[in-house]
Amino acid sequence: MPAVANENTPEGAASFIAHYIGILEFASSTGDVVELSRLSSEECGGCSKYISLYEKTYAEGGWFKDRAWRKSGSELEFNPQEGSESFVTTTVTISAGTYAATSSAEPVVGEKTVRKISFGLRFQSGWQVTQLGLGEPQ
After folding, report:
1. pTM assigned to the model
2. Torsion of CA 96, 100, 101, 103, to 10 degrees
3. How far apart are CA 40 and CA 49, in angstroms?
């Protein structure tokens, strides 16, 4: 993780989310959700859905291939008070790729997707994602 991503600053929040998106991509292509789980709070329902999807898919012999995640542009609502939530909304492009839900499933060719994703995050001795959802923050 970049050093700036450990700072309770607007730059730190933005850098942390860029890193988190990279961890989402890593988890989808490997099934390894250890770091994704560490960076996601237990209260984050959207995070839990991704973690469960990757755990289940890989446990059943499935996989995701060639699904690169790329972030472009961000809007930041930064709250400097430690323990308070900040919000980052960014556009994420996920390239077309293939996936199989289980070892016996036929591979499915996915489509390129472009989504606006909002992240709630909290700084307490480091950043952690508290919310992950499509569209603007709620």
Report:
1. 0.92
2. -160
3. 11
Within 31-44, residue ranges assigned H as helices are 34-39
pLDDT in tens, 38-73: 999 999 999 999 999 999 999 999 999 999 999 998
First to last CA, the chain: 28
> How many whole angstroms separate alpha carbon 75 and alpha carbon 121?
13
In degrees and rounded to multiples of 5, residue 45 shows phi and psi of -65, -40
What is the Cα–Cα distance from 49 to 53, expressed in whole angstroms? 6
CA 57 to chain centre: 17
